[in-house]
Amino acid sequence: MHQGKIMRHQHPSQAIKPQRHWINADTVRMGSTAMLLLILALFSIGAWVSDGFTDRRITGVGSDFSVFWGASYIALHDGTLQAYDLNRMMAVIHQFGTLASGSDRLLPWLYPPTFLLVVLPLALLPFWPSYLVFMLATGLFYVKATLGLLGNRVMPHHRAWVTVVGSPAVFVTVLMGQNSMLTAGLAAMAVTWQDKRPVLAGVAIGLLAIKPQLAMLFPIVLLASRAWRTLASAAATVLGFAGVSIAVCGWKTVPAFLESVRWAQENMIDDGGASWYVMPTFLAAARAAGLGVSVAHAIQMTAAIIAVGALVYVWRRISDNGLRIAMLATATMLTSPYLRAYELTWLLVAVAGVVSHGTRFGLSGRERFVLVLAWLLPLFEFVNPLCKLPQIGPLVFVAMAVLVVRRATMYAEHGAALASPLQTNLRARATQPAKPNR
């Protein structure tokens, strides 16, 4: 018997059974459930020690949502332009929001008129009911959009929703009261709809005008994939959305928004201080390491150019939506100079995209490790301002990008016959001669 050939008269009991990797659906589900229970416990303890989050001696849940609700309150009472007045905003937040009364933290309104239009109704409800409605609505949308990337390969009994709801990315977003579940959900829906509902896909992309820096790469991928109907729909949506926003909020909110961007550039990016440790960007990593502003921007620009090149490569080579959204989300995070821990909901979308491809073609042990690391990254970013450890976020993005490009290359070359490293390993095991029974 030669090595590498299967024995012809092998007894069924001697057949080699494939060994499951320790990172699998069951262990991921158990880990996610444990994380979800921990999150619920933390929220419960927080509510108990702060008298239902009403103790103003400490900053409570929804500090960033205080800005959304505050902008609505100011717009409804004083006019939309006043939302960009930092002093007015801080007065409202200290009166109604969850920021500690003695806090010197500044929470300006940094959003364009498009998002001001979206949050306008929030203050029609008191703060806490408004917070709950906003978080539940955007959260349900995000879970549906993320799980939609998996298609019909994941059944309800798999309880895949636990890996989303129990993720650190969702925890940080809900804790801060941010809009990142909405933006990441729109991106996921746009890619999911692109083939069968191109017009709706364009509408989803156009609605990302609420946070323009996260939508900058969509025109590039639509051009690369020649998705003309989606591109036209997105352009029309942006123009209509911007037009209605300016008509309702007033044209003066445009220069006010641009001025807020300049303020954020100077005070939160170039000179962010502690903020750098919660910003998973090459720029923040360089600044935290002591490099100058110009050098940090050069590093960020270099990373952005490489990321865009990889993005175009993936979208031109393959049509698989899972890998496409994974590369798009990863490249978006690599190109944006301003990115906070709560926006890693986009990274979870990238993870879901890779898992979507992996359910069909397998995942290697190394790929599984990278996906788990990406899933856990928001937790590191959230506590890092206290630890002040080197910023590892960009390195995780790079690992994700390399993973996606590699899988896209293999898929383009082999198609349905794609053999992941895991499958190759299993075939190698199966071709080993069986050990005789003792």
Brief overview:
The protein has 19 helices and no strands. The protein has 438 residues and is mainly α.
> On the 0-100 scale, what is the average pLDDT?
87
* Helix/strand order, N-terminal first: HHHHHHHHHHHHHHHHHHH
Largest sheet: none
Radius of gyration: 24 Å
What is the count of helical runs? Answer: 19
What general outline do the C-alpha atoms trace? globular
Number of strands: 0
Ranges where pLDDT stays below 50 over 5 or more residues in a row are 1-17, 424-438
Proportion of residues in β-strands: under 5%
- Separation of termini? 19 Å
Helix content: 55-70%
Please identify the structural class as seen in this structure: mainly alpha
Keywords: Cell membrane, Membrane, Transferase, Transmembrane, Transmembrane helix
Transmembrane segments: 27-47, 67-86, 106-125, 131-150, 162-193, 199-224, 231-254, 288-315, 392-409
Subcellular location: Cell membrane
Organism: Ralstonia pickettii (strain 12D)
